[in-house]
Design brief:
single chain, alpha/beta, Rossmann fold, four-stranded parallel sheet, globular
Length: about 425
């Protein structure tokens, strides 16, 4: 390629039309939350005849999630958040030994740009939908990381942000939102109460609430985790993927993403078995999977893993199906186990993840112990948020550091004692 991207005229950005996941009804591109006919969720419709890039073309593109733009719900060129995505895939041999499998990698979204969680991906998609629709205010209902991401992406784009969270969240999530100048509102209630309020907010003010009336576009950002895993493994598939579940969107979209790359002929073989992890204090999707059937029973969350504390998950049924139909399973871990999971990930891999990362690591361990992972498995763990955001969770789980005078003779006994 001789031309650089800056010398190519940008094509105006438009959003793709939408189709109901339940009844199949189609409608034009718009900031709408649900199907007008059956209240089902909406997904973007792609042009099946569009030109798709080959692996070599993708490899030459900038290292962001927009290298897969043909699978993102727009025509033309994205205007904001061009630098999100393409986080490291880190091999973790010590963790592989601990799990008793052939190989393990960590998909490290703790270093996602710009807000240190995988929510940068969905917001990169949603904020471009807001641009396509000419919206000047965006917002969200959030358990923390989405709040951070919406605030950061809106600040860079010069948009106003209104952000709604449950009253009690970790300091890192609250300060990590307010610092960007976003309007942050703490709501007395659970995430599900906040989410209901946000449906009314979207209608009343006409704002783009990223996970309500921009949700169809927002969700597609999660697929890029699957694309990146496939590309970073050298255009091949792992045998199993373990991911945390809140609303169940990431897990559902992992399946869609792997499926699309298989359909495009970019990778071959069996889709990976998908495993979802939740905290036992809020595990409605894991319990639905274990029970069978299609009736999700909402829960009132009781866990320190606030980022995954969604008692009535919007994509819960689809996530349970994705786990079941790919031959995977679910794991629910206690708060004590998830704290151990955070430690294990830090000590084995050198990655400091938040509580959801602890759920994923502890979930993988539980699945291995239950015989769900095999000796020849190649497993990817989706580590979705940074540990500095949830320091409260590990405060009492790490040893206190000794304090000494600046004298070698004070240090020597310490070294002898701790070696
Ligand atoms: C939001 C979130 C997830 C997954 O959310 P879904 O709603 O299931 O897509 C996973 N990990 C972290 C840290 C999150 O903030
Ligand atoms: Zn419908």
């Amino acid at each position: 390629m001789s031309a650089t991207s800056s010398s190519i005229a940008l094509l105006p950005l438009t959003a793709r039309p939408l189709r109901c996941r339940n009844c199949g009804a189609e409608r034009g591109p718009a900031p709408v939350a649900i199907c007008e006919l059956c209240l089902g969720p909406l997904d973007p419709v792609y042009d099946a005849g569009r030109a798709l890039p080959d692996a070599e073309t993708i490899r030459r593109r900038a290292p962001s999630l927009w290298r897969y733009k043909e699978w993102l719900p727009f025509d033309g060129d994205p205007v904001w958040s061009l630098d999100t995505g393409f986080t490291p895939l880190v091999e973790a041999p010590a963790l592989a030994r601990r799990l008793g499998v052939a190989r393990v990698w960590v998909k490290n979204d703790t270093v996602s740009h710009p807000s240190l969680s995988f929510k940068d991906r969905v917001v990169a998609a949603a904020i471009n939908a807001a641009a396509a629709f000419g919206l000047e205010t965006i917002g969200c209902a959030s358990t923390g990381n989405l709040a951070n991401a919406v605030a950061a992406h809106a600040a860079r784009a010069g948009l106003k942000a209104w952000i709604f969270i449950p009253e009690e969240l970790e300091q890192g999530k609250i300060i990590g939102t307010s610092v960007y100048g976003a309007r942050l509102v703490r709501v007395r209630g659970t995430y599900d109460d906040v989410n209901r309020l946000c449906a009314q907010v979207a209608d009343h003010f006409g704002w783009g609430i990223v996970n309500v009336n921009l949700r169809g576009y927002y969700g597609e950002g999660s697929k890029t985790v699957a694309y990146e895993i496939a590309e970073q493994l050298g255009w091949r598939l792992p045998t199993a993927v373990v991911a945390p579940m809140a609303g169940g969107s990431l897990l559902t979209k992992l399946r869609k993403g792997f499926g699309e790359f298989l359909d495009a002929g970019l990778i071959h073989g069996q889709p990976p078995r998908l495993y979802g992890a939740q905290a036992a204090g809020c595990a409605p999707i894991v319990r639905l999977l274990e029970r069978g059937g299609s009736a999700l029973e909402p829960e009132v969350p009781r866990t320190i893993c606030r980022s995954l504390a969604i008692g009535n998950p919007a994509d819960g049924l689809f996530a349970a199906r994705a786990m079941h139909e790919t031959g995977g399973w679910g794991a629910a871990v206690s708060d004590a186990e998830l704290v151990q999971g955070v430690r294990l990930l830090a000590e084995d891999v050198g990655v400091f993840g938040e509580t959801a990362a602890g759920v994923t690591a502890a979930g993988a361990l539980a699945l291995a112990r239950a015989g769900r992972l095999r000796a020849d498995d190649e497993v990817v763990l989706c580590i979705t948020g940074h540990g500095l955001k949830t320091l409260e969770a590990v405060l009492d789980a790490v040893p206190e550091a000794p304090v000494i005078a600046p004298r070698l003779r004070d240090l020597i006994p310490l070294v002898e004692e701790r070696s």
